[in-house]
Hints:
Helices cover 74% and strands 0% of the residues. It is mainly α.
Amino acid sequence: MEPPITLIEAESGILEKTRSNAVDAVIDFAGGTMGGITTVYVGQPLDTVKVKMQTFPTLYRGGFHCFMETFKKDGLARGLYAGTVPSLAANISENAVLFLFYGLCQKVVASVLGGKDVQKMNPLENAVSGGMAAFFSSFTLCPTELVKCRLQAMREMATKGQLEGGLERLKIGPWGLTREILHQEGVRGLFKGLTATFMREMPGYFFFFGGYEVSRHFLTPEGKNKDEIGPLRTIICGGVGGVSLWVLIFPADVVKSRVQVQSVAGVKPPTFREMFMKILRQEGVKKLYTGLGPTVVRTFPATGALFLAYETTKKYLGQLHSYITGDS
């Protein structure tokens, strides 16, 4: 019995895709949202360690020491999971917008390349799409990252006498801190460190999506496409993409964290260049990589979980759309 002509066309790529760009955008947005939620709960404790070590590198002997001291003094909720609410807000908004614009930027790049099929874009073309998408996601990320970083480094700032109100300020919480920033500094206060965020995000996500797509290319079994590599390989590819991002842009993240933590009301925040040069002159190149260890340990499972959640959500929402519209 011969297979239906539609099956032959679908397998050969002749059958035209009927799903609209708007539906694709909604699916990408939903996939990014689920990925953002997943990555926070997997990686938040070590993200807290990273920020503490970046902003106060002389207080801790290493990542494990920072982890244990934070747990002993402040526990899980106010210690290792400090800043979880703004972190959730940051990751959900960032990843939802990031993956939404990643899909849109893929279509733009494919159009520039003469109407190339998005599914047949190579890793470099996908990497360029990721770098472009990061420009847009930076606007959603910067305010929530600012609140998160200040909350995570609040104990250290109070201990060093750099925080008005001392240790009592630890009770303020994310919403209270946000209201305080808006009252004292206005909306612009939430965007301190935006230039540093651009400097980190755009090259970072070039390597993030590039690393992910290169890994998928090499881990795709013969006779299958890259969407059929399974959960384990997806997690590995996501982990490779995350590690690629952080190893290559970690100095920019150190600078961003310090700019945001030190940009308190009434004080002109240092620029990206000023902070970068200050660290180089006063502390040396090594301090630009303080906290890289716990970041890499956190990143592999966290970004692996992100991409697994993203790809799984895309798959099932795509199937649901096909079922509803009768395209299955």
